[in-house]
Amino acid sequence: MAKNRTQRVRQAREKQRRRNQQRNIAIGVALVAVIVLMLLIVSNTPTEAPIPEGVAERYEDVQQGTSEEGYPMLGDPDAPVSIIEYSSFSCPHCAEVHDTAFPGILDRVREGKVSFTYIPLPVAGRNVEGANRAAMCMQEQGLFWEYHDTLFNWGETFGNSPFTQNRLTAGAEALGANTDAFNSCVSGGETQFLLDTANSDAAQDGIQSTPTFKVNGALVEDITAAGILDAIDTAYAPFADQGTEPDTEPTAEDGDATPVEVEPTAEEAEPTAEDAEPTAEDAEPTAEEAQPTAEATESSG
Question: Do the Cβ atoms of 177 and 135 come closer than 8 Å?
C-alpha cells in the first residue's frame, strides 16, 4: 500500500513538472513572438530624420574637395590660412562650436582667406562610429557638408539615440543620396580605414579631446567662437596687405584715374615756320658778338 501511494505521488509530481515545462515553453514562444512583432513594427515605422532649413543652399558657392589624406575640405587648398578641426558629431561642445564659430569660418572660406578640413573622431558615444561612417559615405556622393550640418542638428535634437541606422539612412535619402550606394558603402566598411587612420593620427598628434583646432599647424587654446576666429584672423593678418589690384579701372570720380594721353593738335604736332627756321639774327652772331672788344682782348692778355 505504502509503495503504491509513493508511486502515485511521484507520477503526480512528474505530470506537474511536465505541465510547468510546457507552460514555460508556451510563455517563451509568446514572448519571442511579441518581440519579433515589435521589431517589425519599429523597422517599418518611418524614422524621423529632419534636414535643417537652408542646408542644401548653404554650400552652393563654396569650393569643396578633400585633403591629401582624404578628409573633407572646404575652400582653396592654397589659401594662406589652413584650419583643421578634430571633432565628433556626438560631442555637445563640438555642436556648440559648429553653431557659433563655424558660420564665421565659412565666411572666411568664401573670401578665399582660409581652407577648412574636418577630421571625424569616435568621441562621446551614441553610435557616433556609425555617424562617422555614414558621413564619409556621403562624402563619396558630394554631400558630406550638408550631412555634417544635419548630424550636428540631430545630436542636439534626439537625445541618446540621434544616430540610429534607420535615421542615418533616411537622412541620406532626404538629401538626395543614392541609397543603394550609401547602404553598400556603410555595410561594406569602405571608409573604415580612413576613420581608423584619423583616430591613430590624432592620438600621435596628442589630440586628447574634441573639438580641437589647428590654425596653420598651431593649436588654438581658446575653444570659443571668439577665440577660434581671433586665432584665424591673427594668422591671416600678415597676408591682409598683400591684396591684388582691382579688376575694374577706377573712374575719374575715384581720384586715381589713369592719365589719358591726348593726341596733339595739328598746330602742336608740326612746328610753324617761325619755330622751324631760325631768323637771321638767331643764326649768325652780330659783328660785335663775333669780335671781342679791345678791352676784352687786353684783359685776357
Answer: no
State which amino acid sits at residue 9.
Answer: V
5 contacts: CB under 8 Å, gap ≥ 6: none
Q: Look up the pTM and report it.
A: 0.68
- Give tens-digit pLDDT for 182-217: 999 999 877 999 999 999 999 999 998 999 999 999
List, as one string, the DSSP characters of 180-198. HHHHHHHHHTTTHHHHHHH
Beta strand extents in 137-217 (DSSP E only): 212-215
- Distance (Å) of CA 86 to CA 40, 119, 211, 231, 270: 38, 5, 6, 16, 76
CB proximity list for 99: less than 8 A, separation 6 or greater:
152
Residue pointed to by grid coordinates 586628447: 208
**pLDDT tens per residue across span 67-95:** 999 999 999 999 999 999 999 999 999 99
In whole angstroms, what is the distance from residue 101 CA to residue 94 CA?
10
- Do 77 and 115 contact (CB within 8 A), yes or no? yes
The distance from CA 46 to its chain's CA centroid, rounded to whole angstroms, is: 30
**Domains annotated on the chain, with CATH:** 64-236 (3.40.30.10)
d(CA 90, CA 180): 26
- How far, in Å, CA of 252 to CA of 254, rounded? 5
Instruction: Map 79-126 to HEC letters.
Output: CCEEEEEEECCCCHHHHHHHHHCHHHHHHHHHCCCEEEEEEECCCCCC
Sheet holding 218-219, edge to edge: 64-66, 72-74, 114-120, 81-87, 212-215, 218-219
| Distance (Å, whole) CA 151 – CA 131 | 7
Q: Which residue has the cell 550638408?
A: 146
Which segments within the chain are labelled E, that is strand?
Answer: 64-66, 72-74, 81-87, 114-120, 212-215, 218-219
